[in-house]
From TrEMBL, chain A:
Protein name: Nitrous-oxide reductase
Residue ranges crossing the lipid bilayer per the database entry: none
Metal-binding recorded as keyword: yes
Lineage, broadest ranks: Bacteria, Pseudomonadati, Bacteroidota, Flavobacteriia, Flavobacteriales
Presence of keyword Translocase: no
CC terms in the record's Gene Ontology section: cell envelope
Locations listed in the record: Cell envelope
InterPro entries: Copper_CuA, Cupredoxin, N2O_reductase_N, Nitrous_oxide_Rdtase_Sec-dep, Nos_propeller, NosZ/Cyto_c_oxidase_sub2, WD40/YVTN_repeat-like_dom_sf
Natural source organism: Cellulophaga tyrosinoxydans
Gene Ontology MF, one: copper ion binding
Keywords for this protein: Copper, Metal-binding
Gene3D superfamilies registered for this protein in UniProt: Cupredoxins - blue copper proteins, YVTN repeat-like/Quinoprotein amine dehydrogenase
TrEMBL record, chain B:
The organism's taxonomic lineage, starting at the top: Bacteria, Pseudomonadati, Bacteroidota, Flavobacteriia, Flavobacteriales
Keyword Transmembrane helix annotated: yes
Record's protein name: LPXTG-motif cell wall anchor domain-containing protein
Annotated keywords: Membrane, Transmembrane, Transmembrane helix
Superkingdom, natural source: Bacteria
Ranges that cross the membrane: 7-27, 81-101, 108-125, 177-196
């Protein structure tokens, strides 16, 4: 009887939940529609998703990889943050990746991922992402899904209008959110106006290796450069940045930076500036920044400190930079797939301002200027305006595009996604999001060729969307089907960290080239042990180097003696497996770093400083086989003054 | 007879396929190997179906105490078989050419076929004997010693032909391209015999 009662309550509960779902999801829905929505997001066991979605982790400092439409998370790729799960930022090989001019910085705020493009279409070679706090740009290899390179951006602070790429991945562009003294110096904060600069950095990307190098930095007036996007198609060669705080306030910005009715979108003719610096233009400025490169063959990162950067004064290059007045502290700066429309998402208004590239060129040619700011011509608002979207929403932040001439804009304050038509500016549909949506993403929606099947809304506030987990919760994403005239909310899923933006790509582009193992024969790590016969232990003064190998299910060697208190012990571990998805782990008692997770064919190094005499065990942390639990060994640690010789063995 | 002789020559030449394509293929699939591991058995050695399959099969087999898969230099077969096949191709072509110039009768074609069949059966017998040894002659210190329900130690001889379930693996053993080409070639030599016989009759 009691069970029966529980059953009734459960039934009632589910009925209530069910009707809630209807109210939240759609205006008019019934069970049949809901079940078709379930089919849309259902990826059967063993089946694959249609798209990859790379979401920035925000304050997690990393990138998470999801499948669409299922919302299943596949991986967290460590980028700017130490990641004990794999040992990234803890292993000797990966520690250099987090070096900066400020020393080792084990965390950042990762914001805007962007996938490399060729001819304005996604090519799926690399993913770029910016570290906001200690300005950096990272490049992730999309066949290994590993961070391969991180370059620090000098003269920048709050690296927010980043990391967007030009349509042939000529440049990855990084703009500063905070204006700062350039070069940094000790001056009163009140002397901001006129003294602080906003550096926009154009970082060239080698078309073969992907290696980044800062080609030039444009030293702009000291506004805040919020977001940016490249021109494409006819506007290829230009880059557009939204600005706020053109008031140049240095305190209480929420009031003082909201006074001007219009801020600017800065239009940068980077091709012109590129030509200028190629002809010897620009000023070399002494600086100091880290450039960290991870070598795929040696599985090792190295840091180079760069001491010089080429700066450009934009007023010295006529026709290189113009300001487009844009109402109400615009946030997102988005360019449609044709390259003609530049959308300023005026975050403090209800309307969206759309500039026309054609109008802009005509205004420049007709010299229709409305004064200048710090020597940079301001174009007349009416002459560059392409149209205004009277949205009826509040707080537009970001816009993405489908392949049918529609745009989709998030409204943070009114918590909704609004679909509107490019050219006619009419609103076609609006759907609520839960809650306070930040950015949104359509796979390829920031390229010449969007794949307009889904839009993902990334929300800042979660509240009651999932079972409660105390005060702190994951953020929430909402998935909409956009194949019809009206958008349909079809799924909710939690996201890790705070995704500020995402980049999506059809699975068929990436999946076939995803690497399965690292070839042991190609392992060029300085400390690799390529055959288990070469496994050994060497002492150099107080340093002990253990060259160890792993294969299911043992370490070679697994008994080591002759280590002393006060030694610095390096475990250089090479995983000899050449089988897909057979990593081995390594951990030893009292390790002051993290474990290592070593992929097949890889070498990783962990440092252990034994502080106590004894016999200390180590083991494999990855359940690698039926005999995983047997995958263990001992290190004997003797007093500092003992004279026990080094010895090592396996199976004796 | 000319037609028959040309068929005989072509039939014998089909055996050359064995120098390029595998004779036999054994695939091992398991729940955790959705992409099965596999071995291609060539007349001159055993190769992985994918690059690291042999290493991975050996890695798994060490649990149950099986020997590692032999390298070409570890089995006399892998140096002898290529010589035998080359000799049979030569012989077949020679018989065909002699038949073309009417130096030998069509009966030689059948003779070659019978000889080749005997060699083939011997080869299969040898191959099966090796698999029996490989699957039953296990290391007494094996990590996993599994018994059959009747208490006898479990053995792991792959099937010569067809499917078998071995522990968590589904093993499929089938002739591969090289064997099929040999089969076609040998069939052609039989056809050559009958064509030769028919033309001999029509002349007499
Ligand atoms: Cu292991």
């Amino acid at each position: 009887m009691k069970n029966y009662k529980h059953y009734l309550i459960a039934l009632l509960g589910s009925t209530v939940l069910f009707s809630c779902g209807n109210q939240n999801g759609k205006s008019s829905s019934n069970g049949a529609l809901n079940s078709s929505n379930a089919e849309k997001v259902y990826v059967a066991p063993g089946e694959h998703d249609e798209f990859y979605a790379f979401m920035s982790g925000g304050y997690s400092g990393n990138v998470t990889v999801y499948g669409l439409p299922s919302g299943r998370m596949f991986k967290e790729i460590p980028v700017f943050s130490q990641f004990p799960t794999s040992g990234y930022g803890y292993s000797e090989e990966t520690k250099p990746m987090l070096n900066t001019s400020f020393g080792f910085v084990p965390w950042d705020d990762a914001h805007h991922p962007d996938i490399s493009q060729t001819n304005g279409e996604l090519d799926g070679r690399w993913l770029f992402i910016n570290g906001n706090n200690t300005p950096r740009i990272a490049r992730i290899n999309l066949s290994t899904f590993e961070t391969e390179e991180i370059i620090e951006v000098p003269n920048s602070a709050g690296n927010h209008s980043s990391s967007f790429i030009t349509e042939n991945t000529e440049y990855v562009v990084a703009g500063t959110r905070f204006a700062v003294p350039v070069p940094q110096r000790d001056i009163p904060i009140k002397e901001y106006k006129g003294n602080f600069k906003g550096a926009l950095s154009f970082i060239s990307v080698d078309p073969t290796s992907g290696h980044m190098a800062i080609k030039f930095q444009i030293l702009m007036p000291g506004f805040n450069y919020d977001l940016s996007h490249p021109g494409r198609g006819k506007s290829h060669g230009w880059f557009f940045f939204t600005t706020y705080n053109t008031e140049e306030a240095n305190s209480l910005l929420e009031v003082n930076a909201s006074q001007n009715d219009k801020d600017f979108i800065a239009a940068i003719n980077w091709k012109k500036i590129e030509e200028y610096v190629n002809n010897g233009g620009g000023t070399k400025m002494p600086t100091n920044y880290a450039h960290n490169v991870y070598n795929e063959e040696s599985h090792t990162g190295t840091t180079t400190m760069v001491k010089e950067v080429l700066t450009v004064d934009p007023t010295k290059i006529p026709g290189a930079v113009y300001f487009l007045p844009t109402p109400k502290s615009p946030h997102g700066c988005d360019v449609d797939p044709t390259g003609n429309y530049i959308i300023g998402n005026g975050k403090l208004s209800a309307d969206l301002t759309v500039h026309s590239f054609d109008n802009m060129i005509a205004a420049i040619e007709g010299k229709k200027f409305d004064g200048e700011a710090y020597g940079i011509p301001i174009l007349k608002f009416e002459d560059v305006l392409g149209g205004t979207v009277k949205s009826g929403g509040l707080g537009p932040l970001h816009t993405e595009f489908d392949d049918k001439g529609n745009a989709y804009t998030t409204f943070f304050i009114s918590s909704e996604v609004v679909k509107w038509k490019l050219g006619t500016w009419e609103v076609i549909d609006r759907k609520p999001t839960f809650y306070s949506v930040g950015h949104l993403m359509i796979p390829g929606g920031n390229s010449r060729k969007p794949f307009g099947k889904y839009v993902v809304a990334m929300n800042k506030i979660t509240k009651d969307r999932y079972l409660p987990t105390g005060p702190e919760m994951e953020h929430s994403a909402q998935l909409y089907d956009i194949t019809g005239e009206k958008m349909e909310l079809i799924y909710d899923f939690p996201t890790h960290g705070e995704p500020h933006y995402a980049a999506g790509i059809p699975a068929e582009i990436l999946a076939p080239k995803s690497q399965k193992i690292y070839r042991l024969a190609d392992n060029k790590n300085k400390y690799a042990t390529l055959t288990s016969a070469d496994a050994r232990v060497e002492r150099i003064g107080k340093e002990v180097h253990i060259y160890m190998t792993t294969i299911r299910s043992h370490f070679t060697p697994d008994n080591i003696e002759g280590v002393k208190v006060g030694d610095k012990v390096y475990f250089h571990i090479t995983n000899h497996e050449q089988d897909f998805d057979v990593p081995h782990g390594f951990s030893i008692i009292g390790q002051n770093t993290s474990e290592l997770l070593i992929m097949p064919g890889q070498t990783k190094t962990s440092v252990w400083e034994p502080k106590q005499v004894g016999v200390w065990p180590f083991y494999c942390t990855d359940f690698c086989s039926a005999l995983h639990q047997e995958m263990q060994g001992y290190v004997r640690v003797s007093p500092a003054d003992s004279n026990i010789e080094l010895s090592w063995s396996l199976g004796e | 007879m000319k037609k028959a002789s040309i068929l005989m020559i072509i039939g014998s030449l089909f055996l050359l396929g064995l120098f390029v394509f595998p004779l036999w293929n054994i695939m091992l699939g398991a729940p955790q190997y959705p992409e099965p591991l596999g071995m291609n058995i060539h007349i001159d050695g055993i190769k992985g179906f994918n690059e690291f399959d042999i290493q991975n099969i050996d890695g798994l087999n060490h649990y149950i105490g099986m020997k590692t898969i032999p390298k070409p230099e570890e089995m006399w077969e892998f140096s002898t078989f290529p010589l035998v096949i080359a000799a049979m191709v030569f012989l077949g072509v020679l018989i065909g050419v002699l038949g073309y110039f009417k130096k030998v009768s069509y009966k030689w074609f059948l003779g070659w076929f019978v000889f080749m069949s005997v060699l083939g059966v011997l080869g299969m017998y040898d191959f099966n004997a090796w698999m029996t040894d490989y699957g039953t002659n296990l290391d007494p210190h094996a990590i996993m010693k599994i018994a059959n329900p009747d208490g006898t130690p479990m053995t792991y001889k792959p099937p010569l032909f067809g499917n078998a379930k071995m522990l968590n693996f589904d093993v499929t053993s089938l002739p591969d391209t090289g064997a099929w080409l040999m089969f076609i070639g040998m069939s052609l030599t039989v056809i050559a015999f009958f064509v030769g016989k028919k033309s001999a009759k029509s002349i007499s």
